[in-house]
Design goal:
alpha/beta, 6 strands, Uracil-DNA Glycosylase, subunit E
């Protein structure tokens, strides 16, 4: 079932040119490319969120990768982080296939919606505070449109802090002391909505063993457990 509010939001995302530093970087990366994708046409625009409009699970990431989603035009698609994410989502029933390589590869998500704190690929994968705040309006609009949410999975500290900032901006109460990021930390934000934190499945974490498959699968087991609670 479609959600008109989500469709309008994603159209607005794709046409956004508010943050000049991000506009310049995403377009430069799309022009310069990287050697292994030199023959591909890059998306080179803000990347819209994707997934099931009736989702109970919202996954919040950091930002598109310069040669991942900035190339393919879909969240977590075409990079190593996505390899980990979609493998886990498939294993636990949220995706119809274990990989996401291109926007037309047949991927379908069930009961899950994927978004990010920032929608353009940032230099060094580090958006600044102003850029995060400018992009927050899109996350707020998505949260309002997703009426069935029960679990939010925040990938990485920026995703965690970014979601909490949006939650507070929406007028919802944030518990005191303020929730702190830690892998597998869990917080009840409101009646029927739980926040779960995970290390981001970036190469920096997966190559060093800071995040293992077993750990990441454990996160999704907890997500399933929370969704199974009446």
């Amino acid at each position: 079932m479609s959600n008109i509010k989500l469709e309008v939001t994603q159209n607005d995302v794709v046409s956004c040119r508010i943050c000049l530093r991000l506009v310049e970087h995403r377009e430069e990366m799309a022009m310069l490319k990287t050697k292994r994708f030199a023959e591909e046409d890059y998306w080179g625009r803000p990347v819209p969120a994707c997934g099931d409009p009736n989702a109970e699970l919202l996954i919040v990431g950091l930002a598109p990768a310069a040669h991942g989603a900035n190339r393919t035009g879909r969240m977590f698609t075409g990079d190593r982080s996505g390899d980990w994410l979609f493998e886990a989502m498939h294993k636990f029933g949220f995706a119809n296939q274990p990989s996401s390589t291109s926007i037309d590869d047949g991927l379908q998500l069930t009961n899950a919606y994927i978004t990010a704190v920032v929608r353009c690929a940032p230099p060094a994968n580090k958006p600044n505070r102003t850029e995060i705040e400018a992009c927050r309006t899109y996350l707020l609009r998505e949260m309002e449109a997703l009426q069935n949410l029960r679990v939010v999975l925040a990938l990485g500290k920026i995703g965690f802090d970014g979601f909490l900032a949006a939650w507070a901006t929406s007028g919802a109460e944030v518990s005191k002391p303020k929730p702190k990021f830690a892998h597998m930390a869990q917080y009840q934000l409101g009646e029927g909505l739980n926040l779960i934190a995970s290390y981001h499945p970036s190469q920096q974490n997966t190559f060093t063993g800071r995040l293992t498959r077993k750990m990441f699968h454990g996160v999704f087991r907890e997500v399933i457990k929370q969704l199974d609670v009446d």
